[in-house]
Amino acid sequence: MRVSITVVGQGGPEALRHLRSRLRAEPALRGRVTDRELPPAPGTLGPVLDAVLVALGPGGVAAALVTGLVSWLRHERADLSVRVERADGSSFELTAQRVKGLDAAGLRAEIAALARAVEAEAAEDRTP
Predict the structure, then answer these.
(1) Three-state SS for 54?
(2) Domains held by the chain: number
C-alpha cells in the first residue's frame, strides 16, 4: 500500500523536495520513497514534483513516516500543511502550526494516532 503526501497551500514543489530528502534519510523508509511528477507546463523546463509517495509495509514503517513528517513540519520556518492520502481515498492534513505547539507527551500521542490512521489501510491490504 502506498500513501501520497502533498503540500497544501504555500510551499509546493520546493517544500516537497525538502520533505522527500528528510524521509529518504529515515532508515525505515529507505527505498520506499518515490516521486509523482506532473509534465512541465508549456514554456518551462522539466517536470514538477506533485507528491511524495511512500510504500508502507510491516515493521513500523507508518510510525517512521509520521515521525519524519512531524519532525520536518516542526523545523520548517513556514506555516506549511501536508495532506496524506491513502489508496482508499481517505486522508488527513497535518499543519506545522498544530505540531509546533505540542509538548513531548502531546507530540507522542499525535504521532501514535496518525500512525494508527496510516496503518489501518496497510493492515486491511494484508488481510486475505
Answers:
(1) strand
(2) 1
